[in-house]
Amino acid sequence: MRAVLADGSVVTVRSLEPGDLVELEHLHGALSAEDRYLRFFGAPSDTSINKFLRGLVEPSGAHVVALGAFEGTHLIGVGHYELVLPEVAEVAFVVEHARHARGVATLLLEHLVAAARQRGVRTFVAEVLAENSAMLQVLRDSGLPHEAHLDGSSYQVKAALDAGEPYQAKVGDRERIADVASLRRVLSPASVAVIGAAHRPSSVGNAVLHNIVHGGYGGTVHAVNRSGSVVHGVSAVRSVADIPEPPDLAVLCVPAESVPAVAEECGRCGVRALVVVTSGITGLPDVANGLLAAVRRWGMRLVGPNCLGLVNSDPQVRLDATFTAAGIPAGSVGVVTQSGGVGIALLERLGSAGLGVSTLVSAGDKYDVSGNDMLLWWERDERTRIGVLYLESFGNPRKFSWLARRFGRSKPLVVLRSGSSPIAQRAVLSHTAATATPSSTRDALLRQTGAIGVDDLEELVAVVGLLSWQPLPAGPRVAVVSNAGGLGVLAADACARAGLKFAEFPQVQRELADLLPGQASARNPVDTTATLDAATFGAALEIVLRDPAVHALVVPVLRTAISDPGDAVAGAVTRARAAGCDKPVLVVRPGQQESVRPLLAGTSQVPVFADSALAARTLADVVGYATWLARPSGAVPDLGGIDVAAARAAVVAALDRSPGGRWLEAEEVQGLLTSFGLSVVPTTLCRTEAEALAAFRELGGSVALKVRADGVLHKARAGGVLLGVSTVAQLRAGWERLREGFGARFGGVVLQPMVEPGREFLVGVLSEPSFGPVIVFGMGGTDTDLIADRSRRLVPLTTRDAREMLDELRAAPGLFGPDADRALDTGAVVDVLLRTARLAELVPEVVEADLNPVIVTGSGVRIPDARIRLEPRVLGDPFLRELGG
Predict the structure, then answer these.
(1) Within 393-452, where are the H helices?
(2) DSSP H or E stretch at residue 841
């Protein structure tokens, strides 16, 4: 996997293999005497070092994990751990002296933490010489809870592998610094070369060079083509090697078959970043692999292929490396789009609305630079106030979740949804050769991160306009004031459909009644009548805006021969702002040509919409973001009572017996859930009637009798569950009934004590190819199939996520609200969700789980039945899975 160091250079991090021994020996052989002393506490013999190195590239068993950081094929650092106890491993690092202070050891530590946690390791220990301040600093700055004790001449360091919020925040901070450093060569290059800058005006390379030259780019421009003549005033050379100084960025506009060789030449000459505009590469595996090999070998960043290019409107840069025709409107909106066509349309729409972009990256087939990278860039870019993404697939949803949540705390993020219909999903597949995003999970991801999801370009531009021109609403209560009663009613209907609430304002009604004509309506929606003059209409708006019950104001207006109330809006908003009123105002003017345009109101602008439905939908989108922003962020808690080592051992044993994966047996399910502290009802497996009788007598009281039969997963649906068995006679009769009912498939029964009745829910795990583990919560028991009432979230799950999953059920007010029919232990439900999410996170082999029913009472939770399916998985933390993602 590729990753970025603190200085922005790109390396590959992977497990060491026997073929790496020569590089490993070279790395250690080149260590200075001081570095060798700090690493090995002295001067070990060559024989002992050679034996140690062979143990890194040929580890015996899973007790040693060794990772290397490579610049191209050159090994610059190694980190490894070795188990000393089942949950404790000793960790150590060595880094090439010339690469010190570039974050190599820190990067290796992060990847070792991910690998160790997946294998059940909970603690790293290290012995570090007191004078090895650099390594001590790496451990101190890691974000892991740790302690260090001086013991003679060395420190004994112990670090808990807690991957909670503080650690992830540290990882995110380090990644942001490194990623931004690497992206400077992409977005703020000192020099750019266009390769394939042909003379033909119809060629893409000619258009890209034209836009760079005539867009006012402040750096050095180079042109490369086979003829070597002048294009757009730039003297072209025949190859990149002929450029005196290697450019920071090269834009490739050459035929697909030529791309790998050109990329290789760029890397060899010292180019640090590529934009590959060329299409058709992804459908040619040899070409695609050749491009990727060159990028990885030379540590280059890559935008594309199959892309429109990129833009940075910063006055100090002014780079338009695209083939758009209309120019780039400068502004404060950062854009990433996977579709060049969507990018062009969005630029035109933003420009017509008086908005513009700070940066635009057309990711195309998204081999490297992605939306996750740009979130990191925008977070530090003061010129970017709003982020916009159009993505047809998520490369690393878990990483996006972490980054988008943090980004959304300071700047809004708007995501244009795509691929919701089967036809659209087929189009996405043909365009990007990527897995289309399942819409329900994608929408859960957006809710989880606070991102604003929109369905078309019109809504996107409207949301960006409202966010750019007006303050955020403090709540969902809206007032509608119109000079045309019918327009007001239509706007009110649109607001109701969008989920907005209507403000009640008795005092305002009295003030409006004194101000407005007798035939006017002072109730919300307010109808001032069409005969009202503009000044009085403006005064009415100010009265409504002053009321604290109103969070936002929608103003549908029509011009008449008597007056144009729209003229009064700007003055009313200006005066209200001067008086300290900080509420969004949206005007609706049916019939205007633009779907949304700005109206100047003092130092601010008011959005004017052509349609009340768009205005209401836009306001609801922004209210949702403001509501998310106002809530506590939540945290991934450190849950007690979790035995990862036992869980991993159980999974390894199960997959040893069934390498391809399978549904677990009841006793295996019970062991796995218990290892994560979930309150499972004790289960006793009985293969014979005599065993069932003995278990029944031991349990005492009333029991549930459940069949074990080949191919039967839904026991209750198949008639394989008998409840309330309380006598020996009933047990014998039940055994016989199940044995006869299931015939040759019958393999015995499981017995469980009956539990206190309660409300039944479902908690599930589904590992989706595009997203990883998804947690599902909904109505359980017999309601599962009758009532499609579910909420979904991706791991990792925060306390806030879990609580919101409860509140999102349509039945939530009657279950968990203050007026619930019966008191339920909501804290226990939240705990089950969090523990199930941790199980899905730490045991990625769990590809499907169904805890149903989860029985909830006023005093806790019990889980009498659950199913879990395992599949073999490649271990590794997807948060650190791939640069960019």
Answers:
(1) 397-408, 422-432, 439-449
(2) helix 826-842
Q: Which residues pair with 479 in a beta bridge?
A: 553
SS (H, E, C) 130-186: CCCHHHHHHHHCCCCCEEEEEECCEEEEEEECCCCHHHHHHHHHHHHHHHHHHHHHH
Separation CA 556–CA 585 (nearest Å): 11
Given a contact cutoff of 8 angstroms between Cβ atoms, the answer to whether 798 and 636 are in contact is yes
Q: Which pair of structure tokens corresponds to residue 269? A: 């000459």
482 is written with which tokens? 């119109």
Domains of the chain: 2-162 (3.40.630.30), 182-466 (3.40.50.261), 471-630 (3.40.50.261), 644-753 (3.30.1490.20), 759-870 (3.30.470.20)
How far is it, in rounded angstroms, from Cα 330 to Cα 364?
Answer: 22
Pair 795, 877: CB distance under 8 Å: no
Locate 595 and state its tokens: 């779907």
User: Looking at residue 787, what is its pLDDT?
Assistant: 59
- Distance in angstroms (rounded) separating the CA atoms of residues 851 and 414: 35
How many whole angstroms separate alpha carbon 533 and alpha carbon 527?
13
Starting from the edge strand earliest in sequence, which strands make up the sheet with 452-454, in order?
A: 319-322, 309-312, 357-362, 330-337, 386-390, 413-416, 452-454
Report helix, strand or coil for 294.
helix
Give me the average pLDDT of each 10-residue run along the chain (885 residues).
86 92 91 83 77 84 86 92 89 90 91 84 89 86 87 88 73 85 95 95 95 95 92 95 96 97 97 96 96 94 97 96 90 96 94 96 94 94 97 77 91 86 45 48 89 96 98 97 95 97 95 94 95 94 96 95 87 93 96 93 93 97 96 86 88 92 91 94 91 91 89 80 92 94 91 90 87 88 65 90 90 73 88 95 90 91 92 54 40
According to DSSP, the residues that pair with 334 across neighbouring strands are 359, 387
DSSP 386: E
Q: Is the Cβ–Cβ distance between 665 and 706 less than 8 Å?
A: no
Query: 350: which residues sit within 8 A by CB, 6+ positions away?
Result: 329, 331, 333, 356, 357, 461, 464
- Tell me 18's DSSP state: G
Q: Does residue 525 have a cis bond before it (omega within 30 degrees)? A: yes
- DSSP assignment of 657-709 equals H-TT-EEPPHHHHHHHHHHTT--BPP-EEESSHHHHHHHHHHH-S-EEEEEEE
Comparing CA positions, the residue from 503, 492, 586 lying closest to residue 550 is: 503
Q: Which residues contact 497 (CB under 8 A, 6 or more apart)?
A: 613, 616
Q: Is 381 left (phi over 0), alpha (psi -120 to 50) or beta?
A: beta
Token digits of residue 486: 């019918």
